[in-house]
C-alpha cells in the first residue's frame, strides 16, 4: 500500500493495526509459548524458530506499538536467554553467529529492542575484506549471506537509534566488499 499504490500514511497505519488481530499475524502471535518462543520445546533449535518468526512478523508489517506486539516482544526480551554454548546472553543481545545476529539486531531495532551490545559485537567481528562470515575466525573470507544479514541489521539499528560513525563506516566497507565482487562473484573462482 505504501510503496506500490502510494496510499496515505493513515490508511497504511490502519491496515497494519489489523495484523495483530486478524489473519496470519494473529495466528502467528497466538502460537507463541508462555516461555516467549515459537516452535515447541524451548531448545536451541527453537530459538532459531523464534528468530524466523520475528522476521516474519516484521515483514508482515506488524505495528511495533500494538499491544499484542509489545506483549510478544516483552516475552522474548524477558524470558529467552541463549544457551551457554551460544553465548548465554538475553535474546536481543545475540548468539554466536553474525548472520543470525544480523537478523536479531534488525528485528530488535524494528520492535524497539535495538541492542548496543549486539551492534558493537557485530562491528568487532567484521573481517578484513569488509564483510562477515559465520565460520570466522576459521574462515577469514566473508560470506555474501552473512554480510547481507549483518548489513540489514546495522541499517535497521541506525534507523532506530541514529547514525554513528562506526556503524556507517562498517556498512560502507561491507558495501565495497559486495560491489568489488559485483554482488555475486567469488574472488577465488570468479
Automatic annotation (TrEMBL):
InterPro entries assigned: Terpenoid_cyclase/PrenylTrfase (IPR008930)
Protein name: Squalene cyclase C-terminal domain-containing protein
Organism listed in the record: Paenibacillus aestuarii
Amino acid at each position: 500500500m505504501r510503496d506500490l499504490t502510494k496510499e496515505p500514511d493513515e490508511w497504511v497505519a490502519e491496515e497494519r493495526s489489523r495484523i495483530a488481530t486478524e489473519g496470519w499475524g494473529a495466528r502467528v502471535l497466538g502460537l507463541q509459548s508462555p516461555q516467549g518462543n515459537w516452535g515447541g520445546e524451548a531448545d536451541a533449535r527453537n530459538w532459531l524458530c523464534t528468530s524466523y518468526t520475528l522476521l516474519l512478523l516484521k515483514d508482515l508489517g506488524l505495528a511495533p506499538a500494538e499491544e499484542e506486539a509489545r506483549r510478544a516482544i516483552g516475552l522474548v526480551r524477558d524470558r529467552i536467554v541463549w544457551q551457554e554454548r551460544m553465548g548465554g546472553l538475553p535474546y536481543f543481545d545475540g548468539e554466536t553467529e553474525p548472520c543470525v545476529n544480523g537478523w536479531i539486531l534488525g528485528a530488535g531495532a524494528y520492535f524497539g529492542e535495538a541492542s548496543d551490545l549486539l551492534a558493537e559485537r557485530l562491528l568487532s567481528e567484521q573481517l578484513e575484506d569488509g564483510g562477515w562470515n559465520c565460520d570466522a575466525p576459521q574462515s577469514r573470507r566473508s560470506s555474501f549471506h552473512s554480510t547481507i544479514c549483518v548489513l540489514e541489521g546495522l541499517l535497521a539499528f541506525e534507523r532506530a537509534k541514529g547514525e554513528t560513525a562506526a556503524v556507517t563506516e562498517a556498512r560502507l566497507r561491507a558495501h565495497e566488499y559486495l560491489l568489488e565482487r559485483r554482488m555475486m562473484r567469488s574472488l577465488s573462482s570468479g
